[in-house]
Amino acid sequence: MGKWQCVVCGFIYDEAAGLPEEGIAPGTRWEDIPADWICPDCGAGKMDFEMIELA
Amino acid sequence: MSAPVVIVGTGLAGYNLAREFRKLDSQTPLLLITADDGRSYSKPMLSTGFGKHKDADGLSMAEPGAMAEQLQAEVRTHTRITGIDAGHQRLWIGEEAVPYRDLVLAWGAEVIRVPVAGDAGDALFPINDLEDYARFRLAAAGKRRVLLLGAGLIGCEFANDLSLGGYQVELVAPCEQVMPGLLHPAAAAAVQAGLESLGARFHLGPVLSSLNHASEGLLARLSDGTQIACDLVVSAVGLRPRIELAAAAGLAVNRGVMVDRQLRTSHANIYALGDCAEVDGLNLLYVMPLMACARALAQTLAGQPTAVRYGAMPVTVKTPVCPLVVSPPPRGLQGEWTVEGSGSDIKALCRDASGALLGYALTGAAVQEKLALNKQLPALLA
Fold first, then answer.
1. Domain spanning B113-235 has what CATH number?
2. Which of A10, A11, A44 sits opposite B291 (nearest CB)?
3. In this model, does residue B261 exceed pLDDT 90?
4. What pLDDT, on the 0 to 100 scale, is given for residue B28?
């Protein structure tokens, strides 16, 4: 399970934790998140801002 | 050939609008004009450079040439527009007239400059764009002591980031708490304590009276008589939307360039978004409203007039030593605050007489509740 960071605002998506409040279950991999998903902190789109994988 | 859609500014507002527009219209010529070097970057990331070990080049995401190719657009860099002739649908770059089909003002806000007495005004750095950041990083290399002016959101983010970068930070601001106007005092105290735990020192109340070169570095004198030795000064006292060119062109301005819910100024074919725009009375200098505006305006420019809607607009403040997310109550709404928690974990909620949530400030572990609370917040522009 990895972590991905929004390049616009720094929001971190943790695959292990998911985003249950947004209907994304814990363990959801980044590639399985819908293409129309937008960053909950800044509204940047998944398509436009491939988040970067944190080491 | 038909006149292009012209976007003035290549910050997050300009480039994101262009990106959204191109998803809907791949034909209309598109021209972006910027006074800067045109590199694509995310402004919020400027206050995270030290923590991420990134300098200005590291924070740059794309060169203007790559952006032009990606957007099928012309990008004119280091070019400052000098006037707008709204009646003839053209703008001026010196003597050169540039016609437009639609004009979008996305030129942002500028830093408020406070006059400072003394002989070291050249050591005072505002950080408002990537080029400012590059200048600051160059000047800060090998230095140790930074005086920060301003205890707002940006001042606090820089205090955190500079501390992570190994700098001794002294923060001066004429207020009683950090982020006044944005933040409940209990949450402000938690953030301040977090920053102090990194070694930052706060001087809340006085202002910087003078700044002079000293035998070693600089000597700052504050209005309460305090003297602080430092090597350079970062000014983060606030931003003011750029409105002069718009006002000179006869567009309605207030705090920002006034636009309606379709991002339309008082003149046909001229629009504004981002930090320079006052949207239906709201001038919000954050990314989330900017993205909402970019999506709506792209639709309008592509022939589908679309009003922008703002839901709740919580702001995440990048003070990792004490994470903070804040959603101030909407203008004109009064409520009662309750505060739970202690130390660095504060949950301050503002509710109206009926118990409905109007706003919040969450710090530390309490930020985990933000998504659940966001669903209860009122929309800012329904």
1. 3.50.50.60
2. A44
3. yes
4. 98
* Domains detected in chain A: 1-49 (2.20.28.10)
Band of pLDDT at residue B110, cut at 50, 70 and 90: very high
pLDDT tens digits, B142-174: 999 999 999 999 999 999 999 999 999 999 999
Nearest CA in chain B to A22: B371
CATH 3.50.50.60 fits B5-109+240-301, yes or no: yes
Intervals of chain A under pLDDT 50: none
Q: What is the pLDDT of residue B112?
A: 94
Distances (CA, A) of B332 to A39, B109, B285, B335: 29, 25, 19, 10
Matching CATH number, B323-374, of 3.90.70.10, 3.30.70.2750, 3.40.50.1110, 3.30.390.120: 3.30.390.120
End-to-end Cα separation, chain B, in angstroms: 40
DSSP state, residue B264: B
For residue B120, give how far its alpha carbon lies from the nearest alpha carbon of chain A (Å).
34
Question: What percentage of chain B reaches a pLDDT higher than 90?
Answer: 96
SS (H, E, C) B244-256: HHHHHCCCCECCC
In whole angstroms, give the CA distance from residue B322 to residue A33.
29
Report the C-alpha gap between B188 and B143 in whole angstroms: 29
What confidence score (pLDDT) does residue A49 get? 63
Question: Would you list which residues of A are annotated within the binding site for Fe cation?
Answer: 6, 9, 39, 42
Note whether B40 and B58 are within 8 A (CB): no
Tokens of B52: 């991420």
Q: Are A41 and A8 in contact (CB under 8 A)?
A: no
